[in-house]
Amino acid sequence: MRYRLIASIVFFMGTQLILAQKDEPLNLTLEQAVEFALDHNIQMKNAAQDRRDAQAQKWATIAAGLPQISGSVNYQNQLEQPVAQIPAQFFGGEPGTFEEVIFGQPQTFNAGVSWNQLLFDGSYIVGVQATKTFLEYSENLYNKTSLEVRAAVVEAYANALMAEKSADLLSKNVAQVERNLYEAQALFDNGLGEEETVDQLQITYATLKSNEKNAYRMARISHYMLNALLGREINAPIELLDSLEALVGVEMVSELPASFELDQNIDYLMVENLTKKTALELKLAKSKALPTLSASLNLGTNAFGQSFDFFESGKEYFNTAILGVNLQVPLFSSLLRSANTQRAKIADIKAQNTKIDTERMLNVQFENLSSAFALSKEQFLTAKDNLDLAQRIADKNELKFKEGVASSFDLRQAQLQLYQTQQEYLSSMVRVINTHTELANFLNESL
Prior knowledge:
Layout (H helix, E strand, L loop, with lengths): L1 H21 L3 E3 L1 H11 L1 H22 L4 E10 L6 E4 L10 E4 L5 E14 L1 H68 L5 H35 L8 E3 L3 H9 L13 H22 L4 E14 L12 E11 L7 H68 L4 H35 L5
């Protein structure tokens, strides 16, 4: 009992230590969050495995044309040997009669080594050439996944910051309206105020309180989403070290590029991979008309016996050696090869057309993203100015309300305008961050 109690205590303490380590908060800047996601995000892990798989497929393609060596060992025991009938006259018997004979011994053992070598195959040559294009495509696909994950993390990080900021602002607004409501209620109770004033403030307070609760729920959900993108348990503790203002401040000074090079864009690089792929497929279809040449060498040894005595000294073995060369020349395929070649040509033409169309659309997309980024910066500056104005208007109306100059309706309108402007200001900051990220990803540049 004593040992079991000690073991239970040790197990409990170890479990608590593991849980404490698991639940330890993760403190991250935006840059650290992106780097963490690139190492732990599930999509990135799968993309890394796909890249490794491409390397394996490359070697599998190359190895198909290298020497193939295999060995074999075979043992047979004919428990009931087959019987053959031979004309008896071969043994001096009467014509038309047969003698029953058994050929060979019941037990056989043989071992051999086989070597095969592809000497020439047009399909193999094209396949080896295609491995380079396939590896380039795999690398581009990995980079595209990393850009997508980076953009998703930036958006989730910014949304989490906005949710936190929104909840904090709403809490402050609730506290302010609550004070106003308390003062209005006190005046009304003493016969110095109107009931409508209390009702107006009560409506504002109830609405803000509901929005505040929802804001904290959204902040929690935004943390869940960020954790999921980081490859962590969704409810794991996390603290965001950057602020919206700091992130926007960095990106507000970012200059817009006047133009871009096509080979900077990951989508264009993948379209180029497609055109190379279809060109190689056309080359492969044409190579089907070429002959295939291969060679083989088979070495073996055989032994026979009435019993299993194959490993005894003095046992007689009979060696075999066969060298072979195989040439296959396609002569006539009922126009099958011609049809496949035509289809490959059509696919290559379509790929070239897609490349041209992609070039045009990417130039349009660059202009759209540049314009969206410029607009988001302008909207942020406008929202910032509007927030200052709305705050001053709300402060003046609150002062007028306390002095009895402004009505509760005027105060409510000014407060609602302030609350709406606060949310527009937060949204404008997120738009600046997101549009900058989209443009950076388009240019395949770091944030």
